[in-house]
Design goal:
Strand order of the largest sheet of chain A: 16-15-17-14-18-19-20
Strand content of chain A: 15-25%
Low-confidence stretches of chain A: none
Oligomer: heterodimer
Number of strands of chain B: 20
CATH class of the largest domain in chain A: Alpha Beta
Radius of gyration of chain B: 23 Å
Strand order of the largest sheet of chain B: 8-10-9-5-11
Number of domains of chain A: 4
Structural class of chain B: alpha+beta
Number of strands of chain A: 20
CATH topology of the largest domain in chain A: Rossmann fold
Largest sheet of chain A: 7 strands, parallel
Helix content of chain A: 40-55%
Number of domains of chain B: 2
CATH architecture of the largest domain in chain B: Alpha-Beta Complex
CATH superfamily of the largest domain in chain A: Succinyl-CoA synthetase domains
Number of helices of chain B: 15
Structural class of chain A: alpha/beta
Distance between the termini of chain A: 77 Å
Amino acid sequence: MTTRNLALKNSYRDSVELMRLSQELEQMSGVQGATIIMGTDNNKAMLETAGLLTEDGKAAEANDLIIAVRLSPADDEAAIMNRVQESLDSSGRESETNASSNQPRTIDGALAALPDSNLALISVPGQYAAYEATKALDRGLHVLVFSDNVSIEDEVELKNHALNQGLFMLGPDCGTAIINGVPLGFANAVPRGRVGIVAASGTGLQQVSCLLAAQGHGISQALGVGSRDLSDQVGGAMMLEGIRVLNDDPNTDVIVLISKPPGPMAQQQIAFALRVVSKPSVVCFLGMDAQAPNIPNVYFEMTLHEAANRVAGLLGDPTHDTSPVLPSPEMTLLQEISDGLGRDQRYIRGLYSGGTLAYESMLFLRDLNFDISSNLDFPLVNSIDDDAERTHKLIDMGDDRFTQGVPHPMIDYRQRRERILKEATNPEVGIILLDVILGYGSHADPASELVPAINEARLLASGAGRQLAFIVVICGTSDDPQNIQKQAAELTAAGAVVVPSNLQGVSIAAALSVGDLEMIRGWSQ
Amino acid sequence: MRQNKPLLGEDLKVVNVGLSLFADTLRSSGTPVTDVDWRPPAESDQRLTKTLRSIQKRNASGHLNIIDEANRTAHQRMLDAQPALVDVAPAGEAIAGLEDRTLLHAGPPIEWPDMCGPMQAAILGAIRYEGWTHTDTGAVTALENGEITLQPNHNLGAVGPMTGITSPSMPVFVVENRAFGNRAYCTINEGIGKVMRFGANDDTVIQRLEWLQNGLAPVLREAVQSAGGVELRPIVARALTMGDEMHQRNVAATSLLLRTLAPHIANASSIGNNVSDILKFLADNDQFFLNLAMAIGKATMDPTRDIPNSTVVTAMSRNGTEFGIRVSATGDRWFTAPSLMPQGLYFPGFTADDANPDMGDSTIIETMGLGGFAMGAAPAVVGFVGAGTFQDALAYTREMGEITVGRNPNLALPTLDFQGAPCGIDVRKVVESSITPVINTGIAHREPGVGQVGAGIVRAPMACFTQALEAIDQLLSETANA
């Protein structure tokens, strides 16, 4: 047992506070006994009697603070004394009840209130996001930037900055993540499990995690990295980091990557990274043109639906409840709907809030050689600005052009409602395809918005002697706050065909368009 | 490379900046979250927002944040300060460079014609006290002809309250920062009533100055020397636990000092039959310690000057016309803007119409993290400074925590669970958050000689900080391009 004294020159502390601090010190491992006391003659005599005074303490004067500690012999004295000093320097910390009465104005203020914070969630207007994100990174916080409209130069800089410091920089334009079971941004209430996802697409991540939940598989971590992470400029910086971390994560058995097509160089980087991954990986790069590289234990899938199925196949027995969340639509009902559509009502209107889901549908219909107009940029697809006649339309209503000054269509259904009514008056439109994203952050009751619009649209169409087919893709889980069963029941009651997978939804839409339900018989039974 | 904690596997504790919706979701899932009341930086000023971002980029130099590192150095120097009262001596003897026919004044540099009434009056009084001219008209002529040099206290390591006039014969406290060896000076508090710091200059004022010089100062000098100097950090730390914040309230510190010095005063050979007068003067003046607190501030802050890349404010001061700040990286340069009017309570018979714009070097106290920054420590002055309730006072201290580099554990505030006083004002944080330093201050009458008419709080003008920010941005870009 050794006794050490540390004398701090001219360091007055209130004696009651010092008694509290002494008690705290005694809780430290390696500390057998501790007293912090001002160096008055009386106090020194007391320490002497207690056998806690050393030469250093004896030299202290009345204005000096003596930290007297008795240490267990085996411990590293210097390290313990450092911790003692640290605890003294940081001892003054406002209690949370006291501090909570005050809302901080800055990240630093927040850190004063909750010093061991580890993540900053940033959703300020885009022009300020890089500034706030840099501050957060500088304070050692991992960062998720929900904001869009951040320049790609800033994104590159932020991600480099983060990697230099061993931090995650998720986003910008990262809509969703599930970290250690905590949903961030827009995310669904999925069970915890063995699947780790890294996605450059928010709704892609939501769709896959919901489809997996329906099959009884949960998520270990789901990391949104932002829509541009796999551009060649950013080079997949955070997806690569995500792959590395998930490969090391003992709670992850299968790694899933989701993105729109990566830049060629980024794709190569990802392929390199996957070669050294020890776990099975499922890659869904929607619309990836290049030949999928042949890498052992890596499965390239063309759709979100197939990616989820592949993961389920790899994992084997489900770990959670697998009772179906939504009943499959009856073929007789689909036949009835198909029969109700007029000969000219061949065109599909896909009105999406999830950009990736719109994209998946576009790829699907393009492969069927459907003539499409869209605001999604893609070769051989008409721009909606060209107002091409006689095309199917797939519109990402979350596009900047629709969200200036209004909330995202996952939260605000107004623009889609208006669009539904507009399309109902078009004699060539037969099928209206919609997505409903449930989960945290989304609209609390989407059916209450869509059912009246569907009813009104039907009225408009029937006035002109037409019927309409509504297909609603509900992306959600039975634990989501909106109550998926209730949402589905209300939409079904309004005559909509409700399905949990976008691939199913667009397949039905395509089948109705060509009037051939055989196309979908394979999976719907 | 700094070793930051991995994200995965840790319990999330989130700082939410932006949409409150996300904080609500997290809270409902039981995740600890602090929701920042975020506002656009610099009140949406696009130019300043760009400057902030530009400086932020320059901050990052490899793995090192050069500005943050420099500011940590400045902050550490503040924590390391060991101010001690080592002497009481005539200003002309103690302050190197204070020549004959030179007067020092509060605040950033200002020419005689531009000075406010109280400061001009104090200067005329000081000239009469020194005996440089026989009449005030003669003094004005001498000033107009440049026969009397005027310069800021801060130029020579000194500080002074309100008008802050320091003349060579006036006794000053000599405070040495024993950790760094630098010295700072401040005149002795004259007490209340008609006093030169508020611009009074009649015969009673001059007579009191003469008594300070010939009656009090020699005794204090002997006492301080006999005590072997007086360590001041413990007195300040203790006074904070007794309800002082060291700007508006110094009653505890004054008492602690008096208690320390009393035996030495009683033994001083120069005391004659002055014992009672001297002890009574000290006992009657609750703010006696204020001037020492100012010298402590100056002695503490001077070692933080001239640290390359540091955006820490090293001095704040007002000359009754303009408010000025100095910043570490930009050295002796003052960034000035018109002084604001204090908001506060007025003595009977006076109103805001009588008030002079904010004045004095005493803002060095806020610069080191006391005064308005430690308002939460002083429940007794909350009403007096017009801050409203005690909760408001705590809020001021917390708010100042948003614009400072860190806390000073040596100056612990009992009302904030012994959290240290916030210290090291960072120009970047001020501009970014639009939170300006809050200052506890006395209010002078705008007419010379009337004296103090109230007390209150005042904010430092934002323009000082925005100018400093732009100068730093320029400096950094020059360094980068050099």
